[in-house]
Structures are given as structure tokens and as C-alpha cells.
Amino acid sequence: MPLSADPIAARRSVRIRAASEADMAAVRDIDAHYVLRSLATFEETPPTLGDMLARRRASVDLGLPYLVAEAETEILGFAYAAAYRPRPAYRFTIEDSVYVADGFSGQGMGSALLGELVSRCERGRWRQMVAVVGDSANVGSIALHRCFGFELVGTMRSVGFKFGRWVDTPILQRALATARS
């Protein structure tokens, strides 16, 4: 039976590891699903492989983790931290992103990815992690982040327009272990 047809077996053998350049085609395919079919991202055109390689490189060059969830040889999700904003005053604040392959939601993959991402970021110099969630109705992402200590700090109303409708952006935030008053 192919791995993707047996989600329970996939969950038992999932390994979270640093993403390599070779993983980025699979990451691009997972991302494209969300771009084309959901409000989880406000992108409307799937990024190219070159775009995804550049995004990974930008995170890695800052010393931030870019992770994949792998079962056997199949990439089933990815998560990464990136600079929150480019201005120097934001240098200790990072933003997370977590995506799970279509058909694998609700099996603990997002929790495994976000847990490892937070753990690795807590070992760095960063003070705050921010989650910018696409769509107030994205209860799964909001619940996932709350499980890891993120608090809803606000919602930007109707700031995105996708699929013919206006979309909110909830903002969640959590302090990292290195946070100082």
C-alpha cells in the first residue's frame, strides 16, 4: 500500500528534519495546493521552484530553521521561520509558517513541525515569534498555534482579497525562551 494511503503508518514513521534543496520541489507542490485552493496564504500564483529555493536560502542564511516532515521518502509537510519584517528594529522577531500536505491534516504533523520549529528557534537569539494566519475561519491553524503558547494579539479585518472575497488576518504571538524583559 502506498504511504499516502495509510495515514496511521505515516504518522508513526514521520521524521522532522532540516529541509535540503532537493526537498524544495515537494515543498513547492504542497505550497501550491494552499495557494490555489485555500485562504491559508494570500498568494494567488504558486511560487516557482526558484522562488521556494530563494525563500529557504533566506531563512537558512539568517540561521533560522526550515524543516520538512518526511515519512520514508515522501515529504508530507514543511515549516520555517523567516524574518518578520526587514527593518533592523524587528531583527529579534520572526514569523513562522506551517503547511501539511493535502490529506494529512489532523494527524499531528502540524504539531510535530511547529513544536520542532519553536524548539529550534528558542535556541537562537530571537525574542518573539509571530504567526500571521490567513483567514479568521482558519480554526485549525489558530488552534495549532494556541497549543504552542501563541496568543491572539489582534485581527486585521478585510486586508486580503482572494477568491472574490475579503479576508481577515489574525495575528498570534509568543515569546521565545530567550525573551528578556
Task: Give me a quick take on this structure.
This protein is an alpha+beta fold and 181 residues long.
Chain-averaged pLDDT: 93
Number of continuous helical runs: 5
Give the helix/strand class.
Answer: alpha+beta
* Oligomeric state of the chains in view: single chain
Task: Note the main sheet.
Answer: 7 strands, mixed
Radius of gyration: 16 Å
Give, in spatial order, the strands making up the sheet with the most strands. 1-2-3-4-5-7-6
**Global shape:** globular
DSSP strand content: 25-35%
Give me the count of strands.
7
Share of helical residues: 25-40%
* Spatial gap, N to C terminus: 53 Å
Low-confidence stretches: 1-11
SSE run: HEHHEEEHEHEE
Notes on the protein architecture:
This protein is of the alpha+beta class. It is built from five helices and seven strands. It has helices at residues 7-12, 24-37, 49-61, 109-122, 139-147; strands at 14-18, 66-71, 74-83, 93-100, 128-132, 151-162, 165-175. A seven-stranded mixed beta sheet has the order 1-2-3-4-5-7-6. A hairpin with a 2-residue loop joins strand 2 (66-71) and strand 3. Helix 2 (24-37) packs across helix 3. It is globular, with a radius of gyration of 16 Å.
